[in-house]
Design goal:
313 residues; alpha+beta; C8orf32 fold; elongated
Length: 313
Amino acid sequence: MTLNKWFRLLSCLVMLASALPAAARQLDYSAQKIGAMQQLSYRYQGYDGQPQAVTFMVNGRALQEGAAQFQPFDRDALQNYTVEYLQHYAGQMRGVQVSVDRMGDTVGFNAIGSSDEQVQSAIEIMKKRSEEAEDNFLYPRYLVKDTTGKYIMPDHIRVASDYVRLMRPIARALLNQAPDKSPRGAVNAVLNFVQSIPYDTLQNRSTSNGSGFATPYGMIQMNKGDCDTKSVAVLSMLRALYPNMPVAMIYTSEHAFVGIDVPAASGDRILTIERKVYVLAEPAGPGLLPLGNVSNRSSEDLDRGYFSYVVMP
C-alpha cells in the first residue's frame, strides 16, 4: 500500500483587463510604528471613482506573528513524520510482520502473516494510521485535505475563524468610513478595500514566504495577496461585523472567491448552497467588482458546475 498526497495551493488566475471593469487601485499606503502598535493608512479608488481613505491600528507584535504563522508545506517532513508514525505502530502488531518504507514520493507498507485475514486486518489498521499521521501533521500547520482527499491546501475556514477577533478593528474602520452602513454597504466597503490591495501569487520567496497563501495579518503586513488570501481576509472581517452572517469559500478551477448570505439585488450572481442563497463576490480583483459580480472565468466555471465550496461554521 502507498501514501502519496500531493500538495496543491490555489494558483489564482489574473483575469484579462478587457474582461473586467476599471482596475482596483491603491493610491497610497503607509505604515508607522507607534509604541507597541502599528498604524496603517490607505488611500484607494472607490467603486464610485472617488478616492477612499482608511486608517487603523493593530498590535505590532501580533501583526508580525500572524504574518509568519503560515509556512510553506514541507512534503519531506510529512513523509518522515508518517514513516516514524507507522513504524511505531508496526512494531506493536502481533502475529504479523509489517514493514514501512519511503520510496521516492511515497510511503509504503507491507504485511506478512500466517493468514490472509491477519494480513488484511493489519493493512486496514495501517491505512487508518496513515490517515492519522497526515491529520496530526497537518492540523497545527493550518493545512487540510481538500474535498476530494487528493490534495493538501490551507485550512481557509479555520484561518478565517481564528482571525475574526484580530480583524475586527480593521472591519470597523472600514464600516465607519462607508457611506452605506447596511450589511450590503459593509460588504462592499470590505471588498473595495481588499480588492485594492496589490495582487500577488505569493509564490516568489524573494517577496513572500513562497507558500502561495498568507493569513489576513500576512496580507496586511505584506500589503499584497492572492485570491484565497484575500477571500479569507474578507470572511474574517465580515464575521467580525456580523457574527451570524452565513458565508462560504467558493472554489473553481485554480481560483477562489466568496459567497455571502445577504439579500440579493437585481443582476446579482448568486449560488444556492444547502438551501441558502449566497450572493457572490470576487475579493481578489484585480477589477473593481462590487458585491454580486464575478469574473467571466468564474461565471463560466459556475455555469459548467466546476466548483466546490466550504461553508464557514
